[in-house]
Amino acid sequence: MIAISVAGCTNKINQYGSWLVSVDSTVAPRNFDSVLDSASTVSQQIVHHLATGSSTVLTLGKLPWVESRLLIQFHGLDSVYNANSIIQATITLRRATYDLFPAQSPDTTFSGYALNGGWTATGATWDSVQAIGYESVNRIINSHQVTDTTVVLSLDTSIVRTWARSDVDSTVKSYGIIIVPQFEGGILSVYSPVNGTSAYEPIITVVYQKNGATDTLTSIRSLCESVSESYTSNLPSGSFKYIEGGTGLRMWLKFDLSKIPKHSIVNYATLTLTADFSDTSKYGTRSVDSLVVYYDSTSTSFNSFTPVVSSLSGNKYTFNVTLLTQMMLNGQNNGFMVTKYSELNNVDTRFIYDETAPDSLKPKLNIIYTPAGTK
Amino acid sequence: MKKLVLVFAISLLVPKLIYAGDGSPLSGRGIGGFSSFSGSRSTGMGNAGIALIGGNELSIVNPASWSGLGYVTLNAIYSFSGNWSDDKSVGTSSYLTNGNFGGASLGLPIQKDIGLVVAGGFDPFTSYNYQTRGSVPATTEIPVWTLHNTGSGGLGEGFLGFSIKPFKWLSVGSAFRYVFGRVQTTRQITFDNSSYYSTYSDRSTYLRGPSATFGAIVENAGDIFNSAITRDISIGGYVRLATNLHGNFQLRNSYIDHLDTTLVDESVTGYVPPEFGVGITKVFREGLTGVLDVRVQNLSKYYDSSTPKGTFGDEIFVGGGLEFFQGLRSLSPFDKRAYRVGAYYEKSQFLVMSNSGIMKQADEIFLTGGIELPISYAATVNFSLQYGFRGLASDLLLKERVLRFYLSITGGETWFFRPQSD
Questions:
Q1: Same-domain check for residues A144 and A37
Q2: CA A66 to CA A355: how far, in whole Å?
């Protein structure tokens, strides 16, 4: 059958004949305010140790509530292995120009210890490194030079010779070193090997003497990752959940949506979170300050939907969660997972008021919806 | 034969067995507005013709009239309507047009001397076609939003029946009818703020049910009075049995996550009261015929699962018209013309709010006209126009003007035309 018809058309007016068609009362959009409607809200602090090897920026430093260590391993040192002597070896890290946390100049005293086992840049976490273990001998010697653009660490030359030997003799094992900050002072951010720009990648420079001649080797073929740990017991206490990059501190948040009829149509939904920025010395820079919210089913894996990035106004993070809320109403309400934006690139911490805070500060889910309708 | 094939091919295009409804928001109740369409010939004569025998078009309402069918005929109809309506409650107006193939029928004279004709086809039953809008001011929580209701569809029916002429003066006929179709309401809520996702829901009711029509025509019934006034008057009547509808209702919503979900799928029932009609036809002189019909249907008793009794008012129809046939005796079919005029008044099924807040039955009056032209020996094309007003009472909050246009093509063949020697 072929339909042949003339389409109907009307002039553009906003009121016409609506009173003539019987419409059930469920048609009108309604407002759900989790605070005003006293919807039950629960939140949990989630710790999900991150493998940051895919990040372009790595972190290194220590604060009372967070610590970032750097794993680094160099190859391509085979020309050094039979040198008569290694005069000097240094690692140069290139500082990233953003996400310095806190903003003030960090203390930069580091130790380095040879790792006892293998690791991968995309798999190592704080816990896995603890399991691997490392030697107790500090392989970073003398001083270290920190400028606005670089961090230069002097190495114990014996470990460099071991690395070089492992490049030519598979029976010699070498797993690189872990660089550990010694004092609480701040967090550096440095470029990782996956940054893609050779000028920014970590390098090792080896000055050695071979056959009576002094030579210098520079290698950028490195394996590098930072692992971070959050010491939550040192975080300021209060009606907060902590959201932190690098360490994988996340906030799981669930609202009771049972007051909204199943399969209602969500027209617009916003999630508003309030942060405590009262002590700026503890909250890092806010130059790229956003949080990300996911509709989640577990604490460790996200559904593959596009995450929602917040906008920040004052101390309020606001998310458009229309799609995510609709998925909750049509499927299962597993709550939201809130993470730091660019979670792998920094260890910034945000203190987000939770459901125990006063109404004006607690998480708020606002949904404009149209009930699913009846016959 | 080629013409017949052409008409048959056109009839296959019939997509929806509904007539091009007015576009009135009033049609968004129940299963819509019941069609007053009674056949392509009648559309030019005030939708009247219960007692009209002859011609090569099939009457929709009275199967007894088929006994005068001269040829195998196939008829296909296209209908178009435009609706101008004024919503007095808010001082706004609307214009809605709609067009569709509106039906097709096939009549087979089996034995002409006894008026034995078998016929079948499709015709419109109801129309559900409207658009309404209503905006709601912003609140502190919700921006300005507008509810758009759009109705489409309607019910059609298939019929199969016969007529016979047991006596020279009496024709009787009956037809089995089966009503079926869908009325669909799409409900959309849009917001002035473009960040908001619009609400869209589709509410469809699928209904079907059997019915039957019985009719009779007494030709030259007026002759018994032996008066010039009553001479050549035929009287006809029909009854259409009540239709018990059954089917299902489906509600589907569309969501921002592209999930279309059928939320409700449940059985529904309905009841369409019987319809009665009587009519007279008078042949004033050769080629000039007048018709007058009265039809009633107790639609206040109509109901379905979401429409209570009393939603509609009882319908009363009075219509009449004249047909002038030119070139009746001409040997050339291309000299033949038919001109038709008429009018009808109907106390419609629709109840409309009045200024005083009381629901009143909207009455309507239409003027009609038509012309039938030959396109071959036994094929004609028929143009009809109807223009009228609905909501005549001054205090009603809805006034409508309606223009309808019908185009029908009728093809004929002499398949079963037996020679006199038979």
A1: no
A2: 24
Same-domain status, A259 and A311: yes
Is B350 part of a structural domain of the chain? no
Query: Which residues in A lie closer than 8 A to residue B256 (C-beta atoms)?
Result: 266, 322-323, 326
* Nearest CA-CA partner of A245 in A273, A284, A300: A284
Q: Which residue has the tokens 């309905």?
A: B270
A208 lies in the same domain as A284: no
Give the residue numbers spanning the domain of B318.
Answer: 2-332+391-413
pLDDT beyond 80 at A287: no
- Residues B115, B98: Cα–Cα separation, whole Å: 38
Question: Nearest-CA distance from A16 to chain B in Å?
Answer: 5
B286: distance to nearest CA of chain A, Å? 39
**pTM, full prediction:** 0.77
Contact between A87 and A246 (Cβ < 8 Å):
no
Select from B28, B145, B249 the Cβ nearest to the Cβ of A29. B145
Q: How many domains, chain A?
A: 2
Provide the β-strand partners of residue A214. A209
Q: Which residues contact B221 (CB under 8 A, 6 or more apart)?
A: B169, B233, B234, B235
What's the token pair of residue A334?
């597993």
Core vs surface per residue A209-233: b (16+ CB within 10 A) or e: eeeeeeeebebeebbbbbbbbbeee
pLDDT tens sequence for chain B (422 residues): 554 454 444 444 433 333 445 678 888 889 999 987 888 889 999 999 999 998 777 888 999 999 988 888 899 999 888 888 888 877 777 788 888 777 899 999 999 889 999 999 998 899 888 888 888 889 999 999 988 888 888 999 999 999 999 998 999 999 999 999 999 989 899 999 999 999 888 989 999 999 999 999 999 887 777 777 778 899 999 999 999 999 999 988 888 866 666 778 899 999 999 999 999 999 998 889 999 999 999 999 999 988 899 999 999 999 999 999 998 788 787 888 999 999 999 999 999 888 888 889 999 999 999 999 998 877 889 999 999 999 988 888 889 999 999 999 988 876 544 444 43
Q: Is A239 a member of any domain?
A: no
Q: Give dist(CA A232, CA A240) in Å, integer.
A: 11
CATH number at residue A294: 2.60.120
* Burial class of residue A136 in the structure, from the number of CB atoms within 10 Å of its CB (0-12 exposed, 13-18 middle, 19+ buried): exposed
Q: Are residues A100 and A141 in the same domain?
A: yes
Query: Is A93:A190 a contact under the CB 8 Å cutoff?
Result: yes
Give per-residue pLDDT as tens, A3-14: 333 334 444 446
Are the C-beta atoms of A294 and A303 separated by less than 8 Å? Answer: yes
Residue of B nearest to A9 (CA): B96
- Gap from A269 CA to chain B (nearest CA, Å): 9
> Are A18 and B195 an interchain contact pair (Cβ–Cβ within 8 Å)?
no
Q: Do A41 and A95 lie in a common domain?
A: no
Both A210 and A88 in a single domain? yes
Residue type, B158: G
Domain of A43 in residue numbering reads as: 24-48+248-370
